[in-house]
Design goal:
Layout (H helix, E strand, L loop, with lengths): L19 E3 L2 E3 L3 E3 L21 E3 L16 E4 L2 E4 L8 H12 L6 E5 L4 H12 L6 E5 L3 E2 L5 E2 L4 H13 L6 E5 L6 H10 L4 E4 L3 E4 L1 E2 L4 E2 L5 E5 L4 H12 L6 E4 L5 H9 L4 E4 L2 H4 L3 H15 L18
Parallel strand pairs: 3-4, 3-18, 4-7, 7-8, 8-11, 11-12, 12-17, 17-18
Antiparallel strand pairs: 1-2, 5-6, 6-16, 9-10, 13-16, 14-15
Bound molecules: flavin mononucleotide.
């Protein structure tokens, strides 16, 4: 707890230490807003006190602007949501020139989410971000089709995931490199190990699950893009297992995300090994959720006799009985 030794007062929930470190990056609390669900952060600044978040991850940034997928782009599903936004974004240059100068005014770590359709795209985006101030780390989204490999996802194959990580490292990235893994793999440990070996500083686990929603009356998909990515509470148990599997395999820190809505959800991810978490879909029903969660987390920790959030990490007990 943070209580000063000089004070004789009884500790309260406010004394629980929520600060975490992902490699060299420090966060005041473990709650980050997830890529694609929090715009460039600025869109939320009138609703949310950004400085109360642990941090946030930008919308995915590409070499050139992308217009995105046809509507409808979102569709509600039981305990979740499907999205096919098509990675719409302003492009890395407009981000650096127009968004980043405003973001720098907020005292909050910003992580730039980076994607591409070939290795050179990732390298170009990182080079464009390297000279700009105001970013804490890069997060590589490798759940993208590799056009040079017949559209197979980078993240679906450990060798391709390793190659794109190596290329990003070779691009001279001075900032920490987080790699956001695809959940659509037979063995997440293989991908986790492969990107760790190429110098990833942390893993973000995981992205959405490819899925479809059908309207049988029209015989059509409920999304303009036909298929989309499933997110929200429906995916939490599956992604929790992926975090646990990866945590047993690698030494680098893990950022967990998938279906987090409550303080208990956060604590579950930390129990299976996550150092911090991201909150995505929950921001659609409550844009202030990432601002609210740190306080709820303090109360939940205090209730559970935890003095620092870090005590819980990886304490998942596999004994039976
Ligand atoms: C509308 C929407 C857009 C997203 N866009 C991105 C993106 O640009 N890059 C990325 O890495 N992940 C993106 N994601 C995935 C989320 O960051 C997150 O991995 C996923 O939604 C699971 O977390 P959740 O269940 O808390 O939403 C997007 C998710 C949603 C719902």
């Amino acid at each position: 707890m943070n209580s000063s030794p000089a004070s004789n007062r009884a500790p309260t929930a406010a004394d629980v230490d929520l600060s975490v470190r992902v490699g060299t990056v420090s966060f005041r609390n473990p709650i980050l807003a997830a890529s694609g669900t929090f715009g460039y952060g600025l869109e939320f600044a009138h609703l949310v006190d950004l400085t109360r978040l642990g941090g946030f991850v930008t919308k995915g940034l590409s070499r050139e602007p992308i217009a995105g997928a046809p509507a409808p782009r979102l569709c509600e599903t039981p305990s979740g949501m499907l999205n096919a936004v098509g990675l719409q974004n302003v492009g890395v240059r407009a981000f650096v020139e127009q968004k980043l100068p405003v973001l720098r005014k907020f005292d909050v770590p910003v992580i730039a989410n980076v994607f591409g359709y070939c290795q050179e795209d990732y390298v170009e985006v990182i080079r464009a971000l390297e000279d700009a101030d105001g970013l804490a780390a890069y997060e590589l989204n490798i759940s993208c089709p590799n056009v040079k490999k017949g559209g197979l996802q980078f993240g679906g194959d450990p060798a391709m995931a390793a190659e794109v990580t190596r290329a990003a490292r070779k691009a001279g990235a001075k900032r920490p490199l987080w790699v956001k893994l695809s959940p659509l793999v037979a063995d997440i440990g293989l991908t986790a190990r492969a990107v760790e070996a190429e110098g990833a500083d942390a893993l973000t686990i995981a992205n959405t699950y490819p899925a479809i929603a059908v309207d049988f009356c029209t015989r059509k998909s409920r999304l303009g893009n036909q298929t989309g990515g499933l997110s929200g509470p429906a995916i939490k148990p599956i992604t929790l297992r992926l975090v646990w599997e990866a945590w047993r395999t690698v030494k680098i820190p893990i950022v967990g995300l998938g279906g987090i809505e409550t303080a208990s959800d956060v604590l579950e991810y930390i129990t299976v090994g996550a150092t911090c978490v991201q909150v995505g879909t929950a921001s659609f029903s409550d844009p202030k959720v990432s601002e609210r969660l740190p306080q709820e987390l303090r109360a939940a920790c205090f209730e559970a006799n935890l003095f620092t959030i870090n005590e819980l990490r990886g304490s998942f007990c596999t004994e039976i009985g």
